[in-house]
Amino acid sequence: MPVTEQDVLSALKSCYDPEIPVNIVDLGLIYHVNFAPVPAGTPEQAKQDVTIDMTLTAQGCPEHVNISAQVKSRLEQLPGIRNASVNVVWTPPWTPERLSPEAKKQLGID
């Protein structure tokens, strides 16, 4: 059974920016999830490759390498994923409006 976008987002809820006590999904950092099937004839052809477009709360974030590595590692643990790639993008820029209601509650923002 192929991995879905919801599976990916659920897995990524275990990934955090170490400076903010909210997961990266609820922070609104995940912009796009793209799946590509593994080519036929490959031993892992029942698996998929996934590419994540994500941003960070600030362009100068010193944790961008660690967060990207955490995302890649977590996704490659999912059954059905062969390779994961992470693209850090800056357009559109992240704003606090991207926070989920749960994140706003955790951070005390009304």
Notes on the protein architecture:
This protein has 110 residues and is α+β, with helices and mostly antiparallel strands. The chain has a single domain, classed as 2-Layer Sandwich (GMP Synthetase, Chain A, domain 3), CATH 3.30.300. Helix content is 25%, strand content 21%. The protein has 3 helices and 3 strands, in the order H-E-E-H-E-H. It has helices at 5-12, 64-76, 101-107, and strands at residues 30-37, 48-54, 81-88. It has a 3-stranded mixed beta sheet, covered by helices on one side. Helix 2 links the parallel strand 2 and strand 3 (81-88). The protein is elongated.
Task: Write a brief structural summary.
With 110 residues, the protein is an alpha+beta fold. It contains 3 helices and 3 strands.
Task: Based on the model shown, name its key terms.
single chain; about 110 residues; alpha+beta; GMP Synthetase, Chain A, domain 3; 3 helices
SSE diagram, text form:
Blueprint: H1 5-12, E1 30-37, E2 48-54, H2 64-76, E3 81-88, H3 101-107
Parallel strand pairs: 2-3
Antiparallel strand pairs: 1-2
